[in-house]
Amino acid sequence: MTSQEIRQKFLDYFKSKEHLIVPSAPIVLKDDPTLMFSNSGMTQFKDFFLGYKTPTAPRIADTQKCLRVSGKHNDLDDVGRDTYHHTMFEMLGNWSFGDYFKKEAIAFAWELLTEVYGIPKENLYVTIFEGDASENLNRDQDAFDFWKSHISEDRIINGNKKDNFWEMGASGPCGPCSEIHIDLRTPEEKAKVSGLELVNNDHPQVVEVWNLVFMEFNRKADGSLEKLPAQHVDTGMGFERLCMALQGKSSNYDTDVFTPLIAKVEELSGKKYTGILEDEKDIAIRVVVDHIRAVSFAIADGQLPSNGGAGYVIRRILRRGISYSYRFLDMKEPFLYKLVAVLQEQMGAFFPELEKQGTLVTEVIKSEEDSFLKTIENGLIRVEKLIQQTIADNLKVLPSEEVFELYDTYGFPDDLTRIIAEEKGLTIDEEGFKAEMEKQKQRSKSDSAQKVYDWVVLEEKPEAFVGYDQIESETYITRYRKVENKDGEFYQVVLSNSPFYPEGGGQVGDKGILENATESFEVLETKKENGLIISLISGLPKDAGAVFYAKVNATDRKNSQANHSVTHLLHEALRDVLGTHVEQKGSYVGPDYLRFDFSHFNKMTEEEIALIEEKVNHKIKESIALQEFRSIPIAEALEKGAMALFGEKYGDNVRMIQFGSSKELCGGTHVKNTSEIGHFKITSEGSAAAGIRRIEAISGDKSEEYFKNLEKQIIELSQLLKSKDVVRSIEKLIEENASLKSEVDALKKEKAKGEIGDWKNAYEQKGNKQLLVKKTSLDAGSVKDIVFQLKREIPTSVTIILSDADGKPMITVGVSDDLAADYQAGAIVKDLAKEIQGGGGGNPGFATAGGKNLDGLENAYQKALNI
Asked: Nuclease: is it a keyword of this entry (predicted)?
């Protein structure tokens, strides 16, 4: 059975059991403050379990893309070193929302595995929750009794809380679970040791294949459990492990989920995959084929590699793959991007985003490879310098601070530094490096640390967002909770009627005031979490249940919604001018400016930018009225021509915003008429990532302010130049400046010629070598020219020039070629630069360093005399 057939059989089976088959949600989560990525099949259904949303159907089945590379569920370091851990994997799942429970879930699982897939019953074991006295949880007797009708009691194993009580995170839906394990060993191995002894003991051939979670509880922030409003079933079966079992393989990587990718890596690298666990080459191949899947799906779902948040995680995964291929597959040129086409062929039919976004995914990965390979090459030079300095200092251990700087600042893999050091007979300060890593982690934690308490519910009531129609509303608090972070103590509140727009769709959340006759609180931000609109306020009201008046900051809202509406007009104009390949890839919409990222592979010309501005401003002047379809079936909206953004998760009913021919699915706030936008101005256009361009722009009040400032600057320039023809006056200044510069350069050269003669006679004989240490006020360019001339003309010489030009300390070192084996200009300048609180570098023959301490030049001078 092929992997495609295995996946299809699962979906067909549950469709026959009256389950609605739904597509996978995006792997990247954009509106969940607790998670960056979908780490399990149940993530997209969390609101259903908590009762915040009504399920689209009581029974659902799907295959969900998952990523486990951060937080509690982190498999990254295990990937490649065993047969079954992955970063990105598929989770086949069936769900019941208050419909069937343990009996039916167990029966479905058993029937599918043994009758549909034909797995021998004697190869299966199951576990149940044994209970936990500390939480007052009893043994799951119901699950045991239901399993008895399918499997012998001696194959039903009690499992502890760690293995058989499933929790998504520190808080959220949870409950006892029942795992199904499969024994894939040979008959001879089974005869020696019973599979009972190997379940949940990390045996590579006795593995968990399916987990049936019986959602009954919600874990609160204080650690306590409360009953969910209804009982649910949440199951997750590892697709890759299922393929391993059904295809008779001993490793996930031997199944056709991975073999086409492995074959392509073999072809491109010339290395043969043998499947040996300890072989570094095979580990590298497993890392590459796993990581290319994770990165490709994340980019296809809208998450570009970057230096922060989810983007940093994706960049880290990709760089791990590049690093392994560089070190163990000898791949010094980009090649991972060539695997995307293989992945498309394998999975494109089930995951159309790979097909639609294939060009973007390929270009982004290629660009990241190019960039990181340059980082590695530059890092190798830095490592070599560090090693030479360590040897020169008669040390055997590379300093931890410098190794960490290579890793943290320059992105150079620490394990690569370790390998190179060992080849030179050196080591790195392991404990010191770990300490530096821990310091960084603590810094990151302290910056983002936040303690969130449990909700205090004043009234169980559906909250309403009224902000589309009004920016002020009478309201009261339905629930609140305390939040503590580095800035102090705050409270998050949910309002019965909230005019505050919650951050989402690129638009910032509203700020404002919550007040009544006796109290007033500043609303600092508004976000959405688990379907709730949450506003952060500066304190807790004395009477939390009192009636309040909520007021949005009207100026900020007006400017934000003008910028949001203009992004729709901009999107349409970009597609008109550049082509329909343009798709929105991200945005920021605030009161001060807007940022718009879009797919396009070339820098925009000045003519294109001007045409875009013209088209958008024409739409603004047309005074096009907003047509809002507040709740429309998504199929109808798409039929009307609405743009849906890739990587976004839409419900059955959506909101469509239309300004004439511009139609987009959008939940943000907008102007009632394009004339309210005022004027649109692009302030910058540049690259955001490979294949992604970024426009920053302003509109409304900020656009007006922009042109007023320009006018003011022109008036001031005109006054300074004493001319109304500013352009011609500046052209004359440029001509005069160029003429004066030529004269200055000529004078410098004459002065330098005079210095050279004096300096040649100032070398001090040191044994059979010559040393020149000289102070000067010549500029850096002149000093460089002189030093290069001297090191060519004066044999067996070291030349050290200390300059104070423009009040800045500069040290320049030249070493003649015949002394290159004995003296390193870079090492000399690095030592001297300590005296001027600076740093620098170069090559063995020439190096420079700048610094902050001008007074330190004297110490550097005295130190240089003793070389």
From this structure: no
